[in-house]
Amino acid sequence: MSSSPVQQAASKRRTFAIISHPDAGKTTLTEKLLYFGGAIQMAGSVKSRKTDRHATSDWMEMEKERGISVTSSVMQFPYRDRIVNLLDTPGHADFSEDTYRTLTAVDSALMVIDSAKGVEERTIKLMEVCRLRDTPILTFVNKLDREGREPIELLDEVETILNIQCAPITWPIGMGKGFKGIFHLLNDSMHIFEPHSKEAGEIIEGLDNPRLDELFGSMAEDLREEIELVRGASHEFDLDEFLAGRLTPVFFGSAMNNFGITELMDSFVEYAPPPQPRETKTREVDATEEAFSGFVFKIQANMDPKHRDRIAFLRVCSGKYTKGMKLHQARIGKDVTIANAVTFMAAEREQAEEAYPGDILGLHNHGTIQIGDTFTQGEALQFTGIPYFAPELFRRVRLKDPLKNKALLKGLQQLSEEGATQLFRPLDNNDLILGAVGVLQFDVVVHRLKGEYNVECAYEAVQVYTARWVYCDDVRKLEEFKKKASQNLALDGAGNLTYIAPTRVNLDLTMERWPDIDFRATREHL
Ligand code: G4P
């Protein structure tokens, strides 16, 4: 049976994101991937890193950065016979809830670890988000050209801290000044490292190849022993375990030196899953269905300062998009014609002619699209699994002109629907508390309130550790809880009951005291 164009296109797509702690090498690796995929001529043009690195409150600076970073917020490039979509996960100053939500729109993720630093805090958080959907994870250990930690120790750390089994696919021989290259455990071949060389290093087939003795002399025997040991002691790669998110294939190399990346990408396109089925409130949608469907996972504002437009990023889940198509926006029950969606080819925004499952579309948004919105060809579907995440940073909003309260509320309401921040209104007083996961989100809100709603405000510190959404089927228990804990309860932007915990100890004690109440760290959008 011949397959349809949608089935063919879907089977070729691989949509993923990189998760890492700042400075592990995500940007460098992204450049090399695009370079390998033929998407850019010269590695080194993804974005200006230095400006990206420093937190800045300067709005102009932010606009400039965002102008640059949007072109790289989704990158599509061919690799072998696949079409790869790489979704950027803002990581430095621009770390935000978008970073988390982007991970709900991918089918796999690549974890990059600095070989000297091991598993770092941001990586742990991002892994937790991947866990919500059991997303398959590949691992790249970077910077082997520098002195780092023993590879065995690094794998151990990944296994214990991140609770995922490691199956090395390549294995490093030496490190730093003594870095000799990587051995491919499945292909039984050694790739020799030649620093600062534009040529790909020599590949030596077979562990018993005499060429190894020629190159390494007496060290060749140590190398053979080490490889045998690693083969015996480590987990074997198992595709099903990987696809279930329980085992990660591990690769070693140096992004800066373009080394170990071919091995990584060859395995990536072979193992990483094509667009996966997605849950909706009513049924599961398969990527190969002919009818179009997709959901919005991120909204970005003011990308082009000349046009104060907002772009809604939509992940295509099934079917085919063609230019000028009429789509049904399920939440408001309206049909809209999508004439000028953008796609993100090779670091350039282009007008989309067509898009398939796994691809990302940018829809122009004039305030009618919210995070989590589903678009279909008519069926009333609502995709699930695009949650709000409990904020980790909080500020109290102070209005400079009290007469502007109404405009402030309207602005905050809309900005929270767009996912720029989260709003909490305590039951017991008139405070307005904003929550975020990245500190720059607060600056964005102040500037957008001024620019778009003509409201000036500032922030005050507030003693909040975290927020938890409160659920309970037992109405009487819930009423009792509301009465007893009212000083710590608030409504979020959509009117949901939230527990605002001043300290971690307070949260733990409250959860202990109220075992029938469900305190959730995520909440579905609709
Ligand atoms: P990030 O996006 O994850 O934050 O990391 P980024 O790629 O910006 O890399 C962080 C630093 O690590 C950069 O150095 C980069 O050059 C360096 N780096 C990346 N890959 C490797 C590698 O394989 N080996 C070594 N030795 N270094 C690597 P920087 O000095 O902070 O910036 P730059 O001046 O090089 O831009």
TrEMBL record:
GO CC entries: cytosol
GO molecular function: GTP binding; GTPase activity; guanosine tetraphosphate binding; translation release factor activity, codon nonspecific; translation release factor activity, codon specific
Name the UniProt record assigns to this protein: Peptide chain release factor 3
Entry-linked Pfam families: EF-G_D2 (PF22042), GTP_EFTU (PF00009), RF3_C (PF16658)
Record's subcellular location: Cytoplasm
The UniProt record lists the keyword Ribonucleoprotein: no
CDD domains the record matches: RF3, RF3_III
Entry annotated with the keyword Nucleotide-binding: yes
Matching InterPro entries: EF-G-like_DII (IPR053905), EFG_III/V (IPR035647), G_TR_CS (IPR031157), P-loop_NTPase (IPR027417), PrfC (IPR004548), RF3_C (IPR032090), RF3_dom_3_sf (IPR038467), RF3_GTP-bd (IPR041732)
Family: Belongs to the TRAFAC class translation factor GTPase superfamily. Classic translation factor GTPase family. PrfC subfamily.
Keywords, in A-Z order: Cytoplasm, GTP-binding, Nucleotide-binding, Protein biosynthesis
Binding sites annotated in the UniProt record for GTP: 20-27, 88-92, 142-145
Tr-type G domain residues: 11-276
Summary of the function given for this chain in its UniProt record: Increases the formation of ribosomal termination complexes and stimulates activities of RF-1 and RF-2. It binds guanine nucleotides and has strong preference for UGA stop codons. It may interact directly with the ribosome. The stimulation of RF-1 and RF-2 is significantly reduced by GTP and GDP, but not by GMP.
PROSITE patterns registered for this protein in UniProt: G_TR_1, G_TR_2
